[in-house]
Design brief:
Elements: E1 2-7, H1 15-27, E2 32-37, H2 64-74, E3 77-83, H3 91-98, H4 101-104, E4 105-106, E5 117-118, E6 124-130, H5 144-157, E7 161-168, H6 174-190
Parallel strand pairs: 1-2, 1-3, 3-6, 6-7
Antiparallel strand pairs: 4-5
């Protein structure tokens, strides 16, 4: 199985990056793994030109958004890690998704004659979302709950089956609970 990891955290050794790295370590001996750190790639913002519609790649000059599109199409599973930012995904991840609408779904040009259709059916996903709020408050819509909702919106539009959502609360005390959290992350990874 080919697994694409997307680390949307701006912090190199924060909770999100640490948990994703642990999952990758558990999987890479048996699966082909690709890793994208959003913070390390250049992604120009979407200009709303609609040049990608209905089914073309983004027409902006090639950058990290195109690389993601290539990897997403070739992956069997996508594992996304993101910290909760105001109950949403971090801006660079939203930018990546905005640039890849037609990677996820086919949308007819001109007046809409039918609903968009998913383009990534058959793939699956795992979400890892870290929030500073402790459980169960981390699941509120203005915390990780909103981040999870935003991720589900994009991935369901693409027809991707969401296998697991790992919401990590109380991120400020992660180091105190790191061993337990990492055991759970490894269990999720090995359950594939």
């Amino acid at each position: 199985m080919k697994i694409l990891f997307i680390n949307a955290s701006p912090r190199k050794s924060g909770v999100t990056a640490t948990v994703l790295a642990g999952m990758r370590a558990a999987l890479q001996a048996h699966h082909a793994v690709e890793w994208i750190n959003i913070r390390d790639i250049k992604i120009a913002p979407c200009t709303g030109c609609l040049g990608c519609r209905p089914d073309r790649d983004c027409v902006l000059p090639r950058d990290g958004a195109h690389h993601f599109a290539d990897e997403a199409r070739n992956a069997d599973m996508i594992i996304v890690g993101a910290p909760a930012y105001w109950g949403n995904i971090p801006g660079p991840l939203k930018n990546l998704f905005d640039r890849n609408v037609t990677t996820f779904e086919y949308i007819e040009a001109g007046p809409m004659k039918k609903l968009p259709s998913p383009r990534l059916r058959g793939k699956s996903a795992i979400f890892v979302v870290a929030s500073g709020s402790p459980f169960p408050f981390n699941l509120m819509s203005n915390q990780a709950g909103g981040t999870i909702r935003a991720l589900k919106t994009v991935f369901k539009a693409g027809g991707i089956k969401i296998r697991t959502v790992f919401a990590i609360g109380d991120a400020y005390r992660f180091r105190e609970r790191e061993e337990r959290v990492m055991r759970k992350a490894k269990k999720i990874a090995l359950g594939l």
